[in-house]
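This section describes the prediction task in plain terms. A model, or a person checking by hand, is given the sequence of a single protein chain and must write out its three-dimensional structure as a string of tokens. No templates, partner chains or ligands are provided. The sample shown here is typical of the held-out split.
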Amino acid sequence: MDSIAVVAMDIHKKFSKAVALGPQAEVLDVWRIGHGDKDVMQEFFQQFAPGTEVVMEATFNWPWIADVAEAMGMSGNLAHAQRARQMAKGMAKSDRKDAIFLGKLYLAGGDVFPRAYLAPPDVRRMRSHFRQRLLLVRMRVALKNALHGQLFRLGIATDEEASDLFCPKGRRVLEGLELLRHERELMERKLRVIDQLTEHIKAMEEALKAEIKENPRGQILMSLPGVGEVTAYSWLAEIGQLERFPNGRALAAYAGCLPLDRESAEKDFGKRTSRACNKFLRWAAIEAVSGAVKKSGRMKSLHSRVRGRNPKQKGKARIAVARELLELAHLLLSRQEPYREQRPARPGSQGRTRRPRASHPNRASQAAVCARPRRDRDQAEP
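The expected answer:
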């Protein structure tokens, strides 16, 4: 089958529809491959010459198929699922036609093919660990909210006795509550599951911290204000290969932290970040904002300026700081240097020896001194 130019696959949960296309996008053959046995997929890919291009959508179950294809010597390519569907809008739809359409997009080349990032196995492993930890954290938060809701339905307020019901003091408060038997059982079950989730989360965090300490790129990210071990690990996992982002602006756009213009018919509707982004990286970047504002004068100044300009939209200040952190991360990782924040100069200092002040200073000279541009206190030395 040397005349095959590309093998396009429409992937489903239990099977895949594969179509072989020639150089002129002519259909050469069609297959249906089941997903019950990996050996069947290996036998399918063995019939093609090494280096044959394989195209598939970036669905939830693409990794194992891409790994099998690469193990058989084929070259995998991912198509952005949402963009591909938009391009095929209005066309007749079937498994065979979807695969043919993907193959034609790839053969068109250039910017026509909506390419997605085919993450290598190591990046996928890091993403799986981070996202599973995030899933467990969200499950724990949901259970804690459910326990608070149970107490509110019973008319019990514990804010004055303990601000945190899950610390040792809060647990003693919960033990002292007078509840009906079935209400006590429901609360105890929630607490047991919360404790189990906490143990799993701690074990995962210890593993993540041990791995990030041995990663030079992780140490660079941890030099940024507000970025700890877990945040640095999540950034490395979601960013993947830094070379796919030409600059920090592209990385911020990938994380949904870059405001985009909205203008039509000469009317400006303001700027808004896009929802089509890596939501995990966006969440991790925004989580680092609180610590960055507390530890860094530069980030605190940026947060204050943006919040002052948008008093009714406080979220814009957090997005601005998250964008600054991501752009700095791209710059520092590219230069392989840690972050160093320049300490601001003392108020009134001009960096040179002043002349003795006269008893009656000239007001014109004073105005000239005040008109000099001040140093940017937010400047950093990456």
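For orientation: The first helix runs from residue 38 to 46.
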